[in-house]
Specification:
single chain; 1039 residues; globular; alpha+beta
Length: 1039
């Protein structure tokens, strides 16, 4: 894996002489529940869940060294910050930590040297001076500025009005005197500066800040004076007042003022929900479903780092929910990046030898180009459908000029108030700052004009030619904008996206022209309606013409079966923000699902045909050992990116992947390998004749998640077992085909209805526990189909799968049946209208294929030889017991598990199901995704998104016939059910209905109810308990 540069985990050469392991913690020798819990805690502690990353230059003074008659150049230092999430089982919460490290690049060549020059020393990792991880568990969201000079934390603490919680912002950085002083105390070694500059209460400004990866996100302007983000508008869900509620006495605090186009006579209209009428306490306010209950009325906000003031951007279209903000580049200098350091220090950003000069830059933008805020706007359909894991929700990318608001927020109070009173751009601004100098600043009121209502700012829709558009990211020069789009959209909840580029400067030119036209129309409209008491409706957002859009990668319907590595299309949630562009803006880097792995892709932006435009970054994939890779951060200034990788047998790590130098031929160099938690060791450098160079980091320390300390001996034993666990990806030919006419794909208008890839092989990932000393080891087998159904089980580390494999001795088979992502749109859409048939057949076929191949024995030509291994001097044959087969699944995987025990009772002897879909007919009117019920059971284009209609009797009959409840009389296998009581995706009643049906028929069934959990059952204590319960249930029935 990345941190150890080991061989592929499914290669027998990885551990030629593994130590003998005592046969404990397997089915052959049962263990206590306490020991199983210890195993789960160990595996959860070893999991490396990196959710965010940042790369910064580490600035300081210049060093020179003289030795042996030659002088070395200054070293270059890259500072890396990582956010890691860990499970705290005892406290039943997720905890987050920031880790800081440095990657030091010594001089690669001396300036002058003797004839026999020494070899170039490899880079090495160092711990930062404050190496202890910084816990940020109480932080709702955080953002580090691109230069690393500032950190903004959004917090929520007890102590608000009426016993509620108080929202506030903390801004960390450096004072001017610290910047001028330099040295260790004033440099950038500390995270974003060590000084709390100010703390701003947000109770009078907006509600909860969206810190998720869908609606949330933060954007810094180029000068690093302002941050854009998304938050709930005041008066959101649950904020109304009851008729019987007595107003609390005035607390003496000053409410931040607000000005906008909806203000009439100093009072806000209901559109902004800034004021709630009495009696609205229990009025229903529609949200975006599972895990997005707080996303009822979201707004766009800007925070001035200098003054602490917060302003709301007005004019967002009424039928749009904003999210995922980005700020355009003005072409000026970034604070702390181009100016150099003001004081002394101990490190320098300079590289030696100097890189070849870059190509001539494009013409610079106008010196005073305004800053635009870009965001993804999700359309409010006749009803809001669940958003999480649903990538087919109609969306567009909008842009609005926010330079006037930024200027007002960063100026002094008098200028700010003057702007609010006289602005012709109608930004709704709320004062919340104060001169705090690290102390709590009181909310400052903004003076508002009570009469004149300026027109709303112009919000331009950039992507009117796409039904789906999201994730805008600017190029380094600010001239181009990349985004993910799809022209027609798709009915399934996931599908391949196109990668497109917008010529941004052309958009700005059009925007300025349209802004001028709107101002003229608004002035005319204001004069004509001065005597009218009603305000004219806002104009529709102007569109932007498609000739400025270039498609780099279109969606892929059918990957060619003639080539194993043929590109299956882009299957990614988003592009990396704030940057995914390489040096010179010649390539875009992103991760995408390709088969059963998440891979790193490099897409050419300026030349190459579609066939040659995209390539895998093989250096990252080699480092992953056949596993999966994620992209955490990128820095053109520091010449590379942060990547993380893991595999089913390796919790993984991270490393710095350097951009290629096209002019250089790199040679392979290997140095001492780093050990877990030991940053003093130099890691192995993975290089080749290829273009990129990977510098793996030392392992992060394992994070304990239980106060019940696990024994060091068991930790070492389980770690050894994990290394000896074998896995591989299998290709399985489906038994039943699907006629091409059934796939009315919307992914390509030219190929619609001509999908021929539905009969292509699908994949499965087989995990095998290490043998325990006997010459013949036989394991029970668990089939584990994923949920969705349009998702994919990846070749990455899963503590639950490793737990079942190592602690109980199960072989685990993850089935990526037809309908999974990463294989093209044709195979995915072939499942729509055939759930309960094709997907069940694929799971059944995969199990039969594995049992056949792994049970053929020695002397055959089967793939069994791939899993024979030397152990203790002898050969060991691993076989699977066809009489001990179970199935485990959640959501749609639970749907398949319930179908499997009914359709194939002779094969599947036990089932463990988590929040399973059991009766689609009864689910369709109670779930947050009714379109799933229609599309998956009735077929593509069966759901009408333009209206809300209850299903007919005929449609309900078809839904019921596709459901496991229709076959409940055929179930004989014991069934364990685990349900989240607050599940809105697959309502709690689904599992409860199935439980009563099984119990009435005399089937052995056990029901677990987790009162505070939603669909995922991902609260740490619930997650740990239900996997222990699953393991014990399977163990009891597969002995």
């Amino acid at each position: 894996m990345i941190a150890s540069a080991a061989a592929a985990p499914n290669s027998a050469a990885n551990t030629p002489n593994p130590p003998r392991v005592h046969p404990s913690h397997t089915l052959h020798e049962p263990s206590s529940l306490t020991s199983r819990a210890e195993d789960y805690s160990i595996l959860a502690a070893k999991t490396v869940t990196l959710s965010q990353g940042w790369i910064f230059p580490s600035e300081g003074g210049r060093e020179e060294e003289r030795e042996g008659g030659f002088r070395t150049e200054r070293r270059r230092v890259t500072r890396v910050v990582l956010k890691r999430n860990v499970r705290d089982i005892d406290r039943d919460r997720q905890r987050s930590y920031l880790h800081q490290m440095k990657l030091v690049f010594p001089p690669s060549e001396p300036l002058s040297f003797p004839s026999s020059s020494p070899p170039s020393p490899p880079p090495y990792w160092e711990e930062c001076s404050s190496s202890a991880p910084l816990e940020v568990t109480g932080v709702l969201a955080l953002s580090l500025s691109p230069s690393g000079r500032h950190t903004v934390l959004f917090k929520e603490e007890e102590g608000g009005k009426e016993g509620g919680k108080e929202m506030y912002i903390e801004i960390y950085g450096q004072r001017e005197e610290e910047e001028e002083g330099g040295g260790r105390g004033g440099g950038r070694g500390a995270l974003g500066g060590s000084t709390l500059l100010r703390s701003v209460k947000l109770g009078q400004v907006h509600g909860v800040v969206m810190g998720d990866s869908w609606f949330g996100g933060f954007a810094w302007n180029e000068e690093e004076t302002c941050v854009g983000y998304v938050a709930a508008v005041k008066g959101g869900k649950g904020r109304g007042k009851s008729v019987f509620e007595v107003a609390p006495p005035a607390s003496g605090s000053v409410d931040g003022g607000s000005v906008g186009s909806s203000r009439k006579g100093g009072k806000e209209e209901d559109d902004d929900e800034e004021q709630q009428e009495k009696g609205d306490r229990f009025v229903y306010r529609e949200d975006w479903g599972e895990k997005f209950e707080q996303a009822t009325n979201l707004g766009l906000f800007l925070l001035s780092v200098k003054t602490g003031r917060v302003g709301r951007v007005g004019g967002v279209p009424r039928d749009v929910t904003p999210g995922g903000v980005v700020l355009s580049k003005r072409g000026g200098k970034r604070a702390g990046r181009d100016e150099g350091v003001k004081g002394g220090g101990h490190e320098s950003r300079e590289v030696s030898p100097p890189s070849p000069p870059p190509p001539p830059p494009p013409p610079p933008p106008p010196p005073f180009s305004p800053t635009y805020l870009l965001y993804t706007g999700w359309a409010d359909l006749p009803r809001r459908l669940g958003a999480i894991y649903c990538y087919n929700r109609p969306s567009s990318i909008y842009a609005v000029n926010v330079q006037p608001l930024i200027d007002a927020l960063t100026h002094d109070k008098d200028s700010y108030s003057s702007f609010i009173a006289s602005s012709t751009r109608s930004f709704i601004a709320a004062g919340a700052g104060g001169e705090g100098d690290g102390k709590q600043g009181a909310a400052s009121a903004a003076t508002a004009a009570a009469s004149a209502s300026p027109p709303p700012p112009l919000h331009i829709c950039l992507t009117t030619s796409d039904a789906l558009a999201r994730s805008p990211v600017f190029s380094n020069d600010g001239q181009q904008l990349a985004y993910l789009g799809h022209e027609t959209g798709f009915d399934t909840h996931n599908g391949p996206m196109a990668l497109r580029i917008v010529q941004w400067r052309e958009v700005v030119r059009e925007a300025e022209e349209q802004q001028q036209q709107q101002d003229e129309k608004s002035a005319t409209s204001t004069t004509a309606s001065s005597s009218s008491s009603s305000s004219p409706p806002p104009p529709p957002p102007p569109s932007f013409h498609s000739p400025h859009i270039i498609t780099l990668l279109p969606p892929v319907l059918d990957p060619s079966p003639s080539h194993h590595n043929n590109f299956p299309g882009l299957w990614t949630d988003s592009l990396l923000s704030p940057s995914c562009w390489s040096r010179g803006d010649t390539h875009i880097y992103l991760t995408s699902v390709w088969g059963s792995s998440n891979v790193l892709l490099r897409v050419a932006t300026k030349e190459g045909t579609e066939e040659k435009r995209v390539e895998k970054v093989e250096e990252a994939m080699d480092a992953a050992g056949g596993g999966s890779v994620s992209l955490l951060a990128m820095s053109v200034e520091m010449g590379g990116m942060l990547v993380a990788a893991s595999s089913p047998s390796d919790p993984g790590g991270f490393g710095f992947l350097a951009f290629p130098h096209e002019e250089e031929d790199r040679k392979e160099g290997v140095v001492e390998e780093g050990k877990e938690g030991d940053s003093s060791k130099v890691p192995k450098v993975i290089t080749s004749e290829k273009k990129h160079v990977l510098y793996p980091a030392p392992r992060l320390h394992s994070s304990a998640v239980s106060s019940s300390a696990f024994s060091s001996s068991r930790y070492k034993e389980l770690s050894r077992d994990l290394k000896n666990m074998r896995w591989r990806v299998l290709k399985v030919q489906p038994k039943k085909g699907v006629s091409s006419s059934s796939s009315s794909s919307s992914s390509s208008s030219n190929d619609k209805g001509n999908s021929k890839s539905a009969d292509l092989p699908f994949e499965a990932i087989l995990l095998l526990p290490p043998s325990k000393g006997s010459s013949m080891s036989s394991f029970p087998l668990l089939a584990v189909p994923h949920g969705g159904p349009h998702s994919c089980t990846l070749t990455s580390f899963s503590p639950s799968s490793a737990f079942l494999c190592l602690s109980y001795g199960f072989a685990v088979l993850h089935v990526n049946y037809r309908g999974s992502t990463g294989f093209g749109a044709g195979p995915l859409e072939s499942l729509a209208g055939r759930i309960g048939e094709n997907d069940v057949d694929d799971v059944y076929q995969a199990v039969l294929e594995v049992l056949k191949k792994e049970g053929e024995g020695e002397g055959s030509n089967s793939p069994t030889s791939d899993i024979r291994r030397k152990e203790g001097g002898g050969m060991h044959l691993l076989s699977l017991d066809k009489m001990r087969v179970g199935i485990v699944g959640g959501s749609h995987g639970g749907f398949l598990g319930a179908h499997a025990v009914a359709q194939h009772p002779d094969l599947f002897r036990v089932a463990a199901l988590r929040n399973p879909v059991t009766n689609i007919a009864s689910m369709t009117t109670s779930t947050d995704i009714p379109d799933w019920c229609w599309g998956e059971s009735l077929g593509l284009q069966s759901y009408d998104y333009s209206t809300f209609t209850a299903p007919s009797g005929e449609q309900l009959a078809k839904m019921w016939a596709s459901s496991p409840i229709a076959l409940v009389d055929q179930v004989t296998a014991p069934v364990l059910l685990a349900l989240g009581k607050k599940d809105r995706r697959v309502p709690f009643s689904q599992g409860l209905e199935y439980y009563h049906a099984l119990r009435a028929r005399g089937v052995s069934v056990k029901l677990l109810i987790y009162e505070e959990d939603v669909h995922a059952i991902d609260r740490p204590k619930s997650e740990a308990d239900h996997w222990l319960q699953i393991g014990e249930w399977l163990h009891r029935h597969l002995q």
